[in-house]
Design goal:
Blueprint (H helix, E strand, L loop, with lengths): L2 E5 L2 E4 L4 E8 L7 E7 L6 E6 L6 E3 L7 E6 L4 E6 L8 E8 L12 E2 L3 E6 L1
């Protein structure tokens, strides 16, 4: 089992940037495909980005493509999400998630989740 802890959220003005981190512990980090999801009040959890076990393959939601970048450092057991040109509609709780089995856009694929970090973008 792997434990995940997100950090780096906060309040930022539209057009600004934030970098989220997700620290993993408990199992070999490189054994897991990783993803970021987000959930705004009253909305379903939605896919943001994913990254393969070695980091060689990434995928993004259309809404963040070109603005967000997912990366991982397997030596540091850490997943990152660089968020640039933030918009008010990016406001949500952001979660990192891990999967040993596969990598998809569906939250059902991921067995392990962090507690989330709040990102608020003011207009």
């Amino acid at each position: 089992q792997v434990q995940l802890v997100e950090s780096g959220g906060g309040l930022v003005q539209a057009g600004g940037s934030l970098r989220l981190s997700c620290a993993a512990s408990g199992r070999t980090f490189s054994n897991y495909a990783m993803a970021w999801f987000r959930q705004a009040p009253g909305k379903e959890r939605e896919f943001v980005a994913s990254i393969s076990w070695t980091g060689g393959s990434t995928n993004y939601a259309d809404s963040v493509k070109g603005r967000f970048a997912v990366s991982r450092d397997n030596a540091k057991n850490t997943l990152y999400l660089q968020m640039n040109t933030l918009k008010p509609e990016d406001t949500a709780v952001y979660y990192c998630a891990a999967s040993r089995i596969s990598i998809t856009n569906s939250p059902r694929t991921y067995q392990y989740w962090g507690q989330g970090t709040q990102v608020t973008v003011s207009s």
